[in-house]
Amino acid sequence: MSPGLSARFQKVFVGSNLKMYKTNRQTLDFLGRLQELTHDIPRSELSLFFLPSYTALADVCLAANHNLCWIGAQNMHWEEQGRFTGEISPLMLAEIGVDLVMIGHAERRQIFGETDVMVNRRVLSSLVHGFQTLVCVGDTQHELHYGISADVLRQQLKTALYGVTPEQLCKLWLAYEPFWAIGEEGQPADPGLANDIHGVLRQMLADLYPGKDQTVPILYGGSVDLENIEGLMKQSEIDGLFVGRAAWDPDRFNQIVRKTLSTRRLAQG
């Protein structure tokens, strides 16, 4: 057994980003079924979360048992108010009871042109406003091919966390989401490769925050499904899973959660 499997966390972290799928009614049905299916799992062993669309956030936050499931926003502007058409402020998210904010998702970076500096501004604002903050980093197929993924990811992470204090790390989660593993055409990362990349991110945390690197969970996301969970969750540096379309059916999401937990328990001996 690797020491890393037991040294950091007594729980696993499992979540999903619903992206621009599911109506308000569909999302509420998803929440209800997911909570029903997973309520028996001790939350001392599991942090469960999902991120609905903005139109569903208020109703989902009201309906959710936040002791069972964290509800997150898919993005957030760094300013509290202003002339930012189409954006959502931290005050708006706090008012409706959002628990978590995701920042730096691959699609925000690739499709909408978000830069590392913009990610940093959002991270700092999210932490100041008390949200659990999930920071995503990822590499492209080109960067992987030329062997520069580690350099790119170090830059993304170092910039994202610029100005974040050691005291704020308790509100920080990371997710490694290789751009080439996301979407319908995505290919899941080899578990060993994913583990190596997580090790790079862990070492960067150690460099930035000596003695504090073990306090931040690092999740893997990218074409996760029931078939590859076992390989991923046996890795010493992977603390949880950020699941895409495989989790959009609550019954299947429940299966994913339970397999993640059972695999980690077996790996820990």
User: How many helices does DSSP assign?
Assistant: 11
Estimate nothing, just give the exact number of structural domains. 1
Query: What structural class is derived from the secondary structure elements?
Result: alpha/beta
From the 3D structure, determine the CATH topology: TIM Barrel
Q: What order do the SSEs take from the amino end to the carboxyl end, as H and E?
A: HEHEHEHEHHEHHEHEHEH
Mean pLDDT: 95
Helix content: 40-55%
Tally of strands: 8
Q: What's the end-to-end separation, in Å?
A: 7 Å
In brief:
Helix content is 42%, strand content 14%. The chain is α/β, with parallel strands linked by helices and 269 residues long. It has one domain (4-268): Aldolase class I (TIM Barrel), CATH 3.20.20.70.
Structural account:
The protein has 269 residues and is of the alpha/beta class. It has one domain (4-268): Aldolase class I (TIM Barrel), CATH 3.20.20.70. Helix content is 42%, strand content 14%. It has an 8-stranded parallel beta barrel with strand order 1-2-3-4-5-6-7-8, surrounded by 5 helices. The longest helix has 19 residues, at 250-268. The chain is globular. The termini are close together. Mean pLDDT is 95; it is low at 1-6.
